[in-house]
Design goal:
- This protein has 834 residues and is mainly alpha-helical.
- Helix content is 61%, strand content 2%.
- The strands form 2 sheets. Strands 1-4 form a two-stranded antiparallel sheet. A two-stranded antiparallel ribbon has the order 2-3.
- The longest helix is centred in the last third of the chain and has 57 residues.
- The radius of gyration is 54 Å and the shape is elongated.
- The N and C termini lie far apart (184 Å).
- Belongs to the CBF/MAK21 family.
- It is found in: Nucleus, Nucleolus.
- InterPro entries: ARM-type_fold (IPR016024), CCAAT-binding_factor (IPR005612), Noc3_N (IPR011501), Nucleolar_cplx-assoc_3 (IPR016903).
- Pfam families: CBF, NOC3p.
Length: 834
């Protein structure tokens, strides 16, 4: 042991070699190192003061040895390293592919070999392991170097292993992906169908499948989501019960019930939770354009099919929100759903109708009356019961009788013995039970009592008329604001006031249900709107806010309101007659609606049997002039109205006579006819002649020419055949759509019964509604040529008359000039003579 320790002590360990010296030009210093040194100059100042020579000598010095002995040790270590390299040479056999084999004289084949020296690390080749130990810094550097080499070798191996797939392999991969996607789609479709069929076949047993079907609406494939929504829609339509589900309370859950009740409660709760999740999914997908149509279709179908079920409010909100959509498909679906809700109140008892009307009113208010007309037109589908107040009188009488009989019974029972108290208690118990049963039946049934129906109807009416009056007020305010702003653009009826037309139509339909306290304000609004845009309205001269059709609708609504409340109103309608008289000349076929004009003529002139003679004559003359200017449909409606006015006002038939000084009453009335007058009562139409009928009898359309000839031959002394057709029907029969089918030649007139053969006129077959014979093109061509020749002659006559007037005026001015010249000459001569 002692000898071993002595040997270890005598062992000499040489210091490691110093790192090689590198020139300063080859040293590369990064910017970060420079920045670090610049920032910490105070701490790095000692490096410049180090004595490198003494440090090197101290490091390379070995204790107890002289320089010669140290040099001998270095030489010995070098020789030992060279000997080790020679001994570590390895013989490597060359592969047969690389080098040709050699055949010896003995016949043996062998491959050539060469020696390869084993790779010796640089540090080990220079330093003897038995004499020199590595420092910690060297070991760390060596470990880092080995790790980096291992990483490089791993990356190279992985890059070599990764082989790029060929085009054929990529195509096969794509085909496989498509096939797997199609298979998955078909599998999901089949699964949806199986679950849906099972639920429809036995809902109670497969009620849990609703949640599984609901998971398909969360799929990544859009087609699967749409199929899931539509499949759940079909299932819910079939399995939803005919009553509203009420979940049990905590007390009811604590009670012991039978298995059937538990099963029913479980099915109802599962159905309600799945239905709620389905609606939430619909409302979430509504914001995405891809699913918008499918979601709206599902919501509208549920509103139409199950309006009595839970969560009806969410469905109605979604439908009303899209009722004014710019998409025609979405808007039609929502409008049809609301209309079916109004017409089929037996499904929900009327409560859904009240909610829908309130939502529509709020929707109109929120959008400031700027919606599509269909959003308010759906209110026309509402129906109200006018006889709800009548049973109340009978009920009050029955209550009074019941109270009297009850008092009598109480007085009689007070005289009886106390033994009857037991019977009385039994009767009270029975009556109480009957009341409870009646209350339960009432809560389940969808037929509310009279008081409830009256309440719902009053709420519906208040919401409807609130919407209508808001639209009227908005129209007035916007028109006044636009007239004050003095804009240069003319707003069309469908642009500035899109809801005015359906609002006026609704007021005309429900005018008999308006409260009498609001009728006066309504008539004032209508009068101001009808005058909006006329020449007499100063504020409307700046900007015409309402079209002719809208102003005509205001006049129609005013007459309907007046006639439905005739007993309670005393309103002068003269202003509306003035507006109609002026609007006839402002009408333009391409811009305005002919149906509205025909309805105004029917409501204001044909239905009203009491007319002043001057006013009736003015309308007759204006309608005859109107018939010359426009198409066949408008001319036919005007002529039908004209004939009815002449038949009811016999004195106005004097306009048919062609006296020398005008009409037959022109001598007694010292008034000249004013064709452009604004007031029909002051136009002086009785002093004129219906010369327009002579031109209309030569009209190119045979029906109009026949009717005009019949009107011209009317005689005040003979009875006439009253026309049963209205201006609206006449306009419809001769409109542009039906003109090609309703075109008769002049000679085809329908003969009346034997009683009407002796009368002067007969109705044309076109007005009677019979199918006409074939068109005689030659006859039509002749009439058209005569018509346009006549128009050309009229224009030529007007031109000649204008030239004659100008020539006459110039001659008169020349004569006056000559007279003044002569008088001036005479005055000058007199002054000279004086």
């Amino acid at each position: 042991m002692g000898k071993g320790k002595g040997k270890q002590r005598k062992q000499i360990i040489l210091p490691p070699e110093l790192p090689p010296e590198i020139a300063e030009d080859e040293i590369q210093v990064s910017d970060e190192d420079l920045q670090f040194v610049d920032e910490n100059k105070d701490y790095a100042g000692f490096v410049s003061r180090l004595d490198t020579h003494s440090i090197n000598r101290q490091v390379t010095r070995v204790e107890g040895l002289s320089e010669d002995a140290l040099e001998a040790l270095y030489e010995k270590r070098r020789r030992k390293a060279l000997d080790q390299k020679e001994n570590e040479r390895i013989v490597v056999e060359v592969a047969p592919v690389d080098v040709l084999p050699v055949k010896s004289l003995d016949g043996e084949v062998y491959y050539r070999t060469f020696s390869q020296a084993a790779e010796v690390p640089e540090n080990e080749g220079d330093v003897d392991k038995s004499m020199v130990k590595m420092t910690k810094a060297e070991r760390r550097a060596k470990l880092k170097k080995s790790k980096k080499e291992a990483k490089k070798l791993g990356k190279e191996s992985t890059e070599a292993e990764e082989v790029q797939p060929t085009q054929q392999e990529s195509a096969l991969a794509e085909v496989k992906e498509d096939l797997t996607a199609e298979e998955a789609f078909e599998t999901k479709k089949r699964k949806l169908a199986e679950l849906g069929m099972a639920l429809i076949a036995d809902p109670d047993a497969n009620i849990k499948s609703l949640k599984e079907m609901l998971q398909f609406t969360k799929d990544g494939d859009q087609s699967i989501v749409k199929l899931g929504l539509l499949s759940l829609l079909a299932v819910f339509k079939d399995i939803i019960p005919g009553y509203r589900i009420r979940l049990p309370t905590e007390k009811e859950l604590e009670m012991k019930v039978s298995k059937e009740v538990k099963k029913t409660r479980f099915c109802e709760s599962t159905l309600l939770s799945a239905y709620k999740g389905y609606l939430q999914k619909l409302l979430a997908l509504e914001k995405q354009p891809i699913f918008h149509h499918v979601v709206v279709r599902c919501v509208c179908t549920l509103v139409d099919a199950v309006p009595h079920f839970n969560y009806r409010e969410s469905l109605l909100v979604a439908v009303v929100r899209n009722i004014g959509s710019s998409d025609d498909v979405v808007r039609r679906l929502c409008c049809s759903a609301i209309k079916s809700l109004f017409t089929n109140e037996g499904k929900h008892g009327g409560e859904a109708s009240v909610e829908a009307v309130r939502l529509i009113a709020d929707h109109v208010k929120a959008h400031d009356c700027q919606l599509h007309p269909d959003s308010v037109e759906v209110l026309m589908s509402l129906s109200f019961d006018d006889d709800l107040g009548k049973p109340e009188v009978q009920d009050d009488n029955n209550k009074m009788k019941y109270k009297k009989n009850k008092k009598r019974k109480n007085s009689e029972e007070s005289n009886q013995l106390q033994g009857n108290d037991r019977k009385k208690s039994k009767k009270e118990v029975i009556a109480k039970m009957k009341e409870e049963v009646a209350a339960d039946y009432k809560s389940v049934s969808y037929t509310p009592d009279v008081a409830e129906r009256k309440r719902m109807q009053s709420e519906t009416l208040s919401a409807v008329f609130e919407t209508y009056f808001r639209i009227l007020r908005h129209t007035m305010q916007s028109s006044e604001a636009s007239s004050e702003a003095n804009g240069n653009l003319t707003s069309s009826g469908s642009g500035a006031h899109p809801l005015l037309a359906p609002c006026l139509s609704g007021l005309g339909k429900f005018s008999h249900l308006i409260d009498l306290d609001y009728i006066g304000d309504l008539m004032n609004y209508l009068k101001r709107l009808a005058a909006r845009g006329s020449n007499s309205d100063n504020s409307a001269q700046k900007m015409q806010n309402l079209t002719v059709s809208e102003r005509l609708r205001c006049c129609i609504v005013a007459f309907k309101v007046m006639r439905s409340n005739l007993d309670a109103l005393n309103v002068d309608l003269q202003d509306f007659f003035v507006q109609l008289y002026n609007l006839v000349l402002e009408y333009k076929p391409g811009r305005d609606q002919g149906e509205v004009l025909a309805e105004a003529l029917k409501v204001m002139l044909c239905d009203d049997r009491q007319h002043d003679m001057q006013k009736a004559a003015a309308f007759v003359k204006r309608l005859a002039t109107f018939s010359l200017c426009f198409g066949s449909a408008e001319s036919m409606a005007a002529l039908v109205t004209l004939k009815q006015l002449l038949q009811r006002n016999v004195k106005c038939r004097n306009l048919l006579e062609n006296d020398a000084g005008g009409g037959s009453v022109s001598g007694s009335i010292a008034v000249k006819y004013q064709p452009y007058g604004s007031d029909p009562s002051l136009s002086g139409a009785l002093a004129s002649v219906l010369w327009e009928l002579n031109l209309l009898s030569k009209h190119y359309h045979p029906t109009i020419s026949t009717l005009a000839s019949g009107i011209s031959s009317m005689n005040s002394a003979q009875n006439q055949v009253y026309i049963n057709i209205s201006p609206q029907q006449a306009f419809k029969n001769l409109s542009l759509e039906a003109e090609s089918f309703k075109f008769n030649p002049q000679g085809s007139t329908q003969k009346s019964n034997s009683k009407s053969k002796n009368r002067t006129t007969a109705l044309p077959s076109t007005l009677a509604g019979d199918e006409p014979p074939r068109i005689d093109e030659n006859e039509v061509g002749k009439k058209l040529s005569r018509h346009f020749a006549l128009l050309r002659d009229i224009k030529e006559n007007e031109r000649l008359r204008g030239e004659l007037d100008r020539t006459t005026t110039s001659l008169q001015l020349y004569e006056e000039y000559k007279k003044q010249r002569k008088s001036a000459i005479k005055k000058s001569k007199r002054s000279v003579g004086i």
